[in-house]
Amino acid sequence: MRTRVSAAAKRWLRSHGGPLGSIVRVRTARPEFVLTYDDGPDPTHTERILDVLREQSATATFFVLMNRARAHRSLLAEIVGGGHEVALHGPDHRPISRLGYRAVRERTAAAKAELEDLAEVAVRWYRPPYGLQSLSSFRAVKAAGVEPVLWGPTAWDSREATTEQRIARSLRGAEAGAILLSHDSYAGFADGGRSDSPPTVDRPELATRIIEAYRERGLEARSLSRALASGTPVKGIWFKK
Ligand SMILES: [Zn+2]
Fold first, then answer.
1. pTM for the complete prediction?
2. H or E element, residue 78
3. Prior bond to 204 cis, omega within 30?
4. CATH class of this structure's domain 18-236
């Protein structure tokens, strides 16, 4: 009996991550994956990616940086107006995993409030820069009122790679409810990033190719909230410093 309970608890922890879980996937019966964009908004790429999403009848979640959102406020309105979702990537792209609890809580709460004010929507999701979070920063982010969202497949579009490599990488782990990480911009030194070598990539073209590659597998691109309308979040333990 004891063994059975323990095995069930282990299974539950694996799928839910317990109270320390971050959203890593959606459990859904619908043929959908979650398309996410980080590091924007970007005056060069975001608008064209929004055009692609409209052409493809797709929706996506945009994890924005506040230093950019402030400078490109009209793009936030275009994201929301297009039926997409605005979420928080942080006040800037500095990693939070080595900051103290109070600093993370305060800067995240302030960024969430400012983003809600600028975008005129409620902000529920947060993605830590570089996917780096400590137990302390995880708790601080939750205390600030947002839910950490990580990912499964990645588009490999923050580094140099060929389009074929990017598509192959995007499809690694492609399944219903997978959360795909991609970027509508590049976070460099000006954003508090750790490196400053933007890759050569046609981001709108890559968006089209990824959406079509997933469609060939029967999966349509959706924002996280849209996918969660008919699915449930799957949480996993994700701590990286
Ligand atoms: Zn980022």
1. 0.93
2. helix 73-81
3. no
4. alpha beta
- Spell out the domain ranges in the chain: 18-236
For residue 213, the CA-to-ligand 1 centroid distance in Å is 23
Q: Which percentage of the chain shows pLDDT scores above 90?
A: 91
Compute the distance from residue 201 Cα to the ligand 1 centre, in Å: 16
Task: Calculate how far, in angstroms, residue 167's C-alpha sits from the geometric centre of ligand 1.
Answer: 19
The position carrying tokens 């230093």 is: 67
What is the pLDDT, as a whole number, of residue 7? 72
34-92 confidence digits (pLDDT tens): 999 999 999 999 999 999 999 999 999 999 999 999 999 999 999 999 999 999 999 99
CA distances for 93 relative to 105, 131, 235, angstroms: 16, 11, 24
Rounded CA-CA distance 202/183 in Å is 11
Residue 63 alpha carbon to ligand 1 centre in Å:
8
Quick one: tokens of 175?
Answer: 């399944």
Q: How far is the CA of 10 from the centre of ligand 1 (A)?
A: 32
CA–centroid distance, 15 to ligand 1, in Å, is: 25
- Mention every residue, 6+ apart, whose C-beta is less than 8 A from residue 225: 61, 85, 124
Element (H, E) at 52: helix 46-55
